[in-house]
Structures are given as structure tokens and as C-alpha cells.
Design a protein that fits this description.
By secondary structure, the chain is mostly helical. Helices cover 64% and strands 1% of the residues. It has helices at 9-20, 27-39, 50-60, 65-74, 105-111, 114-126, 141-151, 155-169, 184-200, 208-223, 227-244, 250-265, 269-285, 291-308, 314-333, and strands at 131-132, 137-138. It has a two-stranded antiparallel sheet. Helix 8 packs antiparallel against helix 9 and helix 14 (291-308) packs antiparallel against helix 15.
């Protein structure tokens, strides 16, 4: 059996966790079952040992429905410092609107019961699929990869569900703005999971929930001076919004203005000026956009124009300074 499992610690631990609770099953019987699973393994498995996939499949067949829901989400989170509280953030009266359209009903029902959450974490631990250090849970990266392979056509469903779960938890507007220091601890706990989503998403996946988590996390990183991450996330938000929204909308303008601010923070002032000018053009052409937003975008445009002045000839600088002044006056009037 050890040879069939490639003598891999992870595969041996998963098999051991399963066999420990089933003393009537012999090693020979498990080996026979493992060989059957390995003969049917998908051809796409090339980046880890197939024995891990086989051992996981055997364990999956005996997991409760709730534990399968749980590990389907864990497969997309950061592998370490996973809090049970993440699954308690979803409440039925809060899970509404386009941010949460992709949270499946079974995940909402699962999250309503603290007993379900605790029991499912413990079942996965008993099967040696996750670990607990006394404060947080963790899952092996290879286990995550194998679970994602096992999801097959439902992979996108569980990826979107994970995004919705994070959107339900990540600090938003008002007093929960991620730029406010009192919300930083919550942001810091969730940001590794946002990074894991960024690495696992396909380029064509878009939607309000994905845009929300990347936009909010970008605002946090910008406040911390980590502008490269803020830029990457904001570009993802802009691409997603452009793929599903009319161009002349508030959300598109907001993305361009945010990117301009992040670019300016990186001293990429020419690019910042170009992005900011797009936001202003949309603001000037769409009467439905609130004046509060327009004022912010005009102010940002004036700011980035002023920053760009130092890199141009004196005659051009005079023109830019005049345009910057006009932008600030417009913002003040608004």
C-alpha cells in the first residue's frame, strides 16, 4: 500500500485517516480500491502524484454532504490561517443583490448552523484532509489542487461561491471602508484569500462579487502604500466591468479614476493622466452620475495633471497647469 501511494507523506496520511475509522477494512482491500480509482484518473493530472488523487477520491466518497461543501470552498482559499468565522458571515437577510448571486443555496444553508460548520471542519480533520493549530485551519496545497480537479464541471460554481463568501466578509463602504484603520485587521485576515483567488481565476471570469473583493482590497493596499498590488487588482476590476457593463457608466469611470490614483502613486504620471481623463469624460457625459463622484474624479484629474507638469516643456506646463486649475475649480463647484 505504501508503494502504491508513492511513499508520499500526504497520500499516506489521507489513507491512514480513512483506514483508522474503518478497522474492518484491510490494507489489501484499500489497495484494491485505490488501484480501481487510479485506473480511472483524469489525464489532466500531471502536476502532482496520481496516488494523492486516488486517496482523496476514496475519502470523498464517505464524506458528509456538508463536508464536501466545506472542502469545495477551502480548495480556493489561501492554504493557511483559515478561520471558521468566514463561514458565519453569510446570513440570509444579507445575502442578496448581485454581489451574492453566485452563492449556492446549499452554502447559505450550511452557513446558518454553527454546529454544521464545526462538525464539518472536524470531519475533514478526522480524515486528515485539513489541520488545526489551535487558532486557524490549514489545508495542503496539493490537496487543494486535487479537489479542484475532482470538481470537474462544477469548479467554476465553487470558485464563484468562494468569491461570494469573501464578498460577504470583506469591509465595504461607510464605517467599514477598508481605508479606515479600524477595519485593517479584517482586511489583513482576508487578503491572503483574495490573493489566492487572483491566482486561480481564469481571465474571462467576471462579475460584481469579483469586482467588489478586488476593488476593496486594492483600496486597502493603496492606503498601505503597496501600489503594485493595488494596480494589479484594479486592472482586474476594470477588465471585468468593461466586459459586462456599458462603457459610459459610473462603475467604469470609478475604475479609471482609481487606476489613475494608483498610477500616480507609482509616479507613472502620464498613464495616470490618460486614465483620469477618461473618468472625467464619462462624468461629463452621464448626468445620472452623482456630483459627489464627479467631484472626486475631477479633483483626481487636477492632481495627476499637476504631477505630470514637471516632466514637460515650460509652454506645455502652462497649458497643463491651467487645465489642472480648471479641474480643481470644477470639483469645488460640484
Amino acid at each position: 500500500l505504501a508503494v502504491a501511494l508513492d511513499r508520499l507523506p500526504l497520500a499516506l496520511v489521507i489513507a491512514g485517516g480513512w483506514l483508522r475509522d474503518r478497522p474492518s477494512v484491510s490494507y489489501a482491500q484499500y489497495l484494491s480500491e485505490l488501484e480501481t480509482r487510479l485506473s480511472d484518473k483524469p489525464s489532466i493530472i500531471t502536476d502532482y502524484h496520481a496516488s494523492i488523487y486516488g486517496a482523496l477520491q476514496i475519502s470523498f466518497d464517505t464524506l458528509s454532504r456538508e463536508s464536501i461543501i466545506l472542502i469545495s470552498i477551502l480548495a480556493f482559499l489561501a492554504p493557511e490561517k483559515i478561520s471558521q468565522n468566514l463561514f458565519r458571515e453569510i446570513q440570509k437577510d444579507e445575502v442578496q443583490g448581485e454581489l451574492f448571486d453566485n452563492i449556492p443555496t446549499e452554502l447559505i444553508e450550511f452557513s446558518k448552523s454553527n454546529r454544521n460548520i464545526e462538525a464539518s471542519f472536524r470531519e475533514l480533520e478526522r480524515n486528515s484532509l485539513i489541520d488545526f493549530d489551535g487558532d486557524f485551519w490549514s489545508i495542503h496545497r496539493t490537496t487543494q489542487l486535487a479537489v479542484r480537479h475532482m470538481q470537474g464541471k462544477s469548479r467554476n460554481k465553487w470558485l464563484q461561491a468562494t468569491v461570494g463568501l469573501l464578498a460577504a466578509s470583506y469591509p465595504g463602504g461607510g464605517d467599514r471602508n477598508p481605508q479606515f484603520s479600524k477595519n485593517w485587521a479584517a482586511c489583513e485576515q482576508l487578503n491572503p484569500h483574495i490573493a489566492a483567488i487572483y491566482k486561480s481565476i481564469e481571465a474571462d471570469i467576471c462579475g460584481a462579487a469579483i469586482e467588489y473583493i478586488f476593488n476593496q482590497s486594492a483600496l486597502y493596499y493603496w492606503k498601505q502604500g503597496e501600489n503594485r498590488i493595488a494596480l494589479l487588482y484594479s486592472l482586474k476590476v476594470l477588465r471585468s466591468r468593461k466586459s459586462r457593463l456599458n462603457f459610459n457608466t459610473r462603475d467604469i469611470a470609478e475604475s479609471y479614476s482609481n487606476l489613475a490614483a494608483f498610477l500616480a502613486a507609482c509616479n507613472k504620471n502620464y498613464s495616470a493622466m490618460r486614465f483620469s481623463s477618461v473618468a472625467v469624460k464619462i462624468a461629463n457625459s452621464n448626468r445620472m452620475i452623482p456630483d459627489t463622484d464627479k467631484a472626486i474624479w475631477h479633483g483626481c484629474y487636477g492632481y495627476v495633471l499637476n504631477k505630470y507638469v514637471d516632466s514637460v516643456a515650460p509652454d506645455d506646463a502652462k497649458t497643463l497647469l491651467e487645465e489642472s486649475r480648471n479641474a480643481h475649480h470644477t470639483a469645488l463647484k460640484l
